[in-house]
Amino acid sequence: MANEAKPAQQRIDQFFSGPGGRADNWRDLVEAAKVWSKGGDRAPYDAALSALSVTEEFHGYPGLRLMAALKEAAAAGDAATSQMLAARIAQALQTKSFRQYAGDWSTQDEASGDVPDLLPPTLGQSAARRPYFETLIVTGVPAGNWPGLLAEWRKLRRPVDAFIYEPVVVGSLEDAFCAAMLNPNIAAVVINEGFGLRSRHDAPVLRAMTGAMGLGDESDASALRLAHILKRIRPELDLYLMSNRDVEELAGNPEADVVRRVFYSVEDILELHLSILEGVQDRFDTPFFDNLKKYAQRPIGTFHALPIARGKSVFKSDWIRDMGEFYGLNLFLAESSATTGGLDSMLEPTGNIKKAQEKAARALGADRVYFVTNGTSTSNKMAVQALLGPGDIAIVDRNCHKSHHYGMVLAGAQPLYVEAFPMTEYSMYGAVPLKTIKQALLNAKADGRLDRVKMIDLTNCTFDGHIYNTRRVMEECLAIKPDLIFLWDEAWFGFARFSPFLRRRTAMGAANEIEAWMRDPKSVAAYEKQQAELGKNPSDEVLLKTRLIPDPRQIRLRVYQTNSTHKSMSAIRQGSMLAVKDIEFHTVEAQFKEAVFTHASTSPNQQLIASLDVSRRQMELEGYGLVANAMEIAFAIRNAVNTNPLISRYFRVLGADAMVPREYRQSGFTDYLAAGTNWASALKSLNDDEFCLDPTRMTLVCGTAGYDGTSFKGLLASRYNIQVNKTSRNSVLIQSNINNTRSDVAHLVRVLAEIAGEIDRGLAKGGATARVDFDMRVNSLMKDVPDLPNFSHFHAAYRGDAGTKTNEGDIRGGFYSAYDAAGCQYIRLNDPEIDRRLKSGPDLVSANFVIPYPPGFPIMVPGQVITQETIDFMRKLDVKEIHGYDAAEGLKLVRTEALARMGKPKAAAPKLKAAS
């Protein structure tokens, strides 16, 4: 954030300044110590240490003792000791060696003994390491007694413990909140009674938030209130309450369901210690992966159809042994087509896959989760096929992934396409405005067809980072039809569950909020108040302008979320999850199972299933910190590109103000890097705005450097070993993820600087001619861009039962028209016949999907009438990859005669005489 990474600020509520910002602050302290030790100014060191001391209170390492030693050295004027100690702590934090190396916790400089490993902890080492985490202790004990309290907790450690943890003590609700936000190592929280409300540190933004939550005085600082706050921001945390009052009554309170266990505070805390370890163990356990490891170590005789299992055919071969040497023995030992002997069936899970999916459901906030091993394309088709049938209408974003369109074909459902707002300058679409979706529902209602509208099918977030206000979309649509099903394709957004900022914009996050709102008695009052204001028969115009409130008594909450786990978590490619929160799931469970049978492989890859299991473990235990780091990486890239004088001359990362039109940013939010922006203003945008921009997805404009997106992507890959994902006519999409480091940022920035420098030198050497050519190229890419075509309509032959106001069609019929070779024809794109028919008829009707990459969405679907704007767009396209179109053959069209035959009424089938 623009004003959140300054180390001199003694503020505890700068939550976008995450792990990287903390490392920078320690680096600045070390540099200041070096200057001081060489006789320079001491003041910068004192200021840096003062700033660090505030937020370091919320971390287990370096802890109270080491921070006290730093302060004592500074107070004694000992620059050498200050430098030595600061450098040792900074290195331990950077390498994370403090998690395993006891010497890092000492105040002495140990020249001998073990040396902290600069490589990741598992590289080149065979000894098992105990995972490290931290436990937050919230207490009313005076701060002077905290060292003794910490010592008592450390005495509980035992060599047999599977994990090791360090306690972190705070004495107020605000400090507990800040610790949970700032310290990603916290995995458990122990809440004692008697703590205060306010932090003793500067936190004006936090004060505004606590005021909005109704926390006005010390009496509001209850243990249960804090438990609910912490569970909301970090639902993965295990919470434990310690009470010296009537614990039986507290444990029986329904409001205490967010707490893992309640303890009587005067009892031995060993049970609490064991409970903390058990809670982390519950998240650490990976039922399928654990069993697969055990299976791989057993002597198995394989007499099933998988020769590669156990690896004998590989390692005994002179010809393919190199594959075994490359992948390692365990991969083959863990291969099997068996579903017994400790393994399980993906099609009918009853054992460890079932348990793994239940843990994934907990992690994602869903009722149930399905593992899918052939990508989210399959997850989407499974959901569409299970939830829709022939003749059902689904409101679908026309620019969604092709799997949704094909799912409609398979189900025989009729898509009612709605259009996203266009971003013509960058040859991409945004997301579908809520007003457009509501209008489609109201049109169906006016046509008497609302009962056939079964589903809203949208992409969240879009390829380019547009995030819906998922709760608002679902609530307003449910106000019109309370039993709608929502399918949210969150292929690119699975990580968002583990960010307290982005979670509210996920399907499951919003569904849980709606569920909680429905239980609140105030929800009925809010609905009835609005109904009284609207009157009995409000016009469509009024309904479109009003933020509609659904009747909580009528809602049937039915939400499905698909995510490409491999796109944002540590799963192997094609690993996907389908999350369900559907109160009516029992009515579709049988057909859902049939959809699984239809699409899931009967030979799923064991390693894929294991990676889904392990990726869930990782995100539950460290996902919060990993996502915070991914966001911080993105902010660093945005800042480095847009503020560098050389790079920004030719490249820029688009801000929210360029990616989301003003009318959809009701809060006035402009960009994460805008002056004056902090986490509170970003949070207001995430709460209120119709669309937000995922900070981890960055549209880098390269057209201003004279490169089209495809060429620039190729240049980065072939010359600089940098891989990016999507391209547009004049941009490439850069995505930060949990795998990225600051070194990756430095490499990208260095490459962009090198390319910008080459452009500079080329223009200087080429003179006026080079400048003219360059400007013409930029103008062609940035100004002379084709208008994006909207979906037109289905031909009447595919709209036999359509309404007058709605625009759905029989896409399945259109799709199978292409199977009739005699009923189709090809016309080349530049043939004058195209222009003649556009002007005089008959209609040009597409026989298949036509999907150019970029932009990657169907500009034609089967049965669609092709219009002038679509032809103009295709003729201006300069991309090499267009699925469903062969330039040598031309457009595949349904012949007019075939359309006429489809329009004729079919003869009734002869009645069969009943058997006697």
Summarize the structure.
By secondary structure, the chain is α/β, with parallel strands linked by helices.
SSE blueprint and pairings:
Elements: H1 19-37, H2 43-56, H3 63-75, H4 79-95, E1 132-138, H5 146-154, E2 164-170, H6 173-182, E3 186-192, H7 204-212, H8 223-233, E4 238-243, H9 247-251, E5 261-264, H10 270-284, H11 287-296, H12 312-315, H13 321-327, H14 329-333, H15 352-364, E6 368-372, H16 375-387, E7 393-397, H17 402-411, E8 414-418, E9 422-423, E10 428-429, H18 434-446, E11 453-459, E12 466-468, H19 470-480, E13 485-489, H20 507-519, H21 522-534, H22 540-545, E14 558-563, H23 565-568, E15 576-582, H24 585-599, H25 606-643, E16 652-653, H26 656-659, H27 679-688, E17 691-693, E18 697-701, H28 709-720, E19 731-735, H29 742-782, H30 811-817, E20 824-827, H31 832-840, E21 851-853, H32 868-876, E22 881-883, E23 891-894, H33 896-903
Parallel strand pairs: 1-2, 1-3, 3-4, 4-5, 7-8, 7-11, 11-13, 13-14
Antiparallel strand pairs: 6-15, 9-10, 12-17, 14-15, 16-18, 18-19, 20-23, 21-22
Helix pairs in contact: 1-2, 1-4, 2-3, 3-4, 6-8, 11-25, 15-25, 16-17, 16-24, 17-30, 18-19, 19-20, 25-29
